[in-house]
Amino acid sequence: MNNKEKYSLLIKEEAKRLGFLSCGISKAEFLEEEAPRLENWLNHQHNGQMAYMENHFDKRLNPTLLVDGAKSVISLLLNYFPSEKQNEDSYKISKYAYGQDYHFVIKEKLKELLNFIQEEIGEVSGRAFVDSAPVLDKAWAAKSGLGWVGKNSNLITQKVGSFYFIAELIVDLNLEYDTITTDHCGSCTACLDACPTEAIIAPYIVDGSKCISYFTIELKENIPLEMKGKFNDWAFGCDVCQDVCPWNRFSKPHNEPLFNPNKELLSFSKKDWEEITKDTFNKVFKNSAVKRTKLEGLQRNISFLLGK
């Protein structure tokens, strides 16, 4: 076994020990196929008011602009599928926001993995990324053989589904690269048929500016009136295109205690949501991604669901 194989194996074993669902490795190079796709998506303004998607176009496509001398992109998946769901009579939040904000949870694990690499292998420079920098997570994960980008534009993995976070370590170390997996969406159109706002405008193309997640989290002004009655009680994010995906029959509950929800959240009724106070919001969503929308944003979303 050569060093590249040995190091790659070491890294994958440590990733597993840290609780990652899987780990794949690809060569750090310009994402040629993604360039026209990203350009087209931006030209059609599918990013809505997410102006940050237009920034750092080159960095999004070229990891060597993010890490000097980058040789490998280590992609990692972390499961967040919950064992318990919200009460039926409730406004819904995306399952990824049930527990603690994933940015902090994953950053810690990535730090540990990078430290491990430096201790076991030696002088290795790298950076950790958890969707807060211009990195095309799904493209790298697919290139690393961890799944395929489905018709709902989420990464999907056989036997696992898609309820997981994606993160990367970009390092200046030559490693053994994994092979790309094939697309298993077939003729299925479940996600296109089920999207409440018809945001999946064609297979593999999502108009971000029509997505419930965009309206409830990213949009800072009032939600457009033509969307009234289309949100199916989603108050923060939306999981519809994942919930209907046949591959998510295979989702298994995560085993990350930090992703466990506050018990109060699970038992919230619509009335509880409508009457939520600053204190309750701060207590229930103490370290949650829901904080991104702030109490005012959440109240705006609930008023919209109430037809106000």
TrEMBL record:
Keyword NADP attached: no
Binding positions for [4Fe-4S] cluster 1 per the UniProt entry: C185, C188, C191, C245
Pathway linked to the protein: tRNA modification; tRNA-queuosine biosynthesis
Main location per the UniProt record: cytoplasm
InterPro entries: 4Fe4S_Fe-S-bd, 4Fe4S_Fe_S_CS, QueG, QueG_DUF1730
Catalytic activity: epoxyqueuosine(34) in tRNA + AH2 = queuosine(34) in tRNA + A + H2O
Annotated localization: Cytoplasm
Cofactor note: Binds 2 [4Fe-4S] clusters per monomer.
UniProt domain 4Fe-4S ferredoxin-type: residue ranges: 176-205
Residues at the catalytic site: D131 (proton donor)
Leading EC class: oxidoreductase
Requisite cofactors: [4Fe-4S] cluster; cob(II)alamin
Keywords: 4Fe-4S, Cobalamin, Cobalt, Cytoplasm, Iron, Iron-sulfur, Metal-binding, Oxidoreductase, Queuosine biosynthesis, tRNA processing
Binding annotation for [4Fe-4S] cluster 2: C195, C211, C238, C241
EC number: 1.17.99.6
Binding site for cob(II)alamin: R60, D131, N152, L155, I166, S213, C238, D239
GO molecular function: epoxyqueuosine reductase activity
Keyword match DNA-binding: no
Subunit structure: Monomer.
Record-linked PANTHER family: EPOXYQUEUOSINE REDUCTASE
Family: Belongs to the QueG family.
Function: Catalyzes the conversion of epoxyqueuosine (oQ) to queuosine (Q), which is a hypermodified base found in the wobble positions of tRNA(Asp), tRNA(Asn), tRNA(His) and tRNA(Tyr).
HAMAP family xref list: QueG
Protein name stated in the entry: Epoxyqueuosine reductase
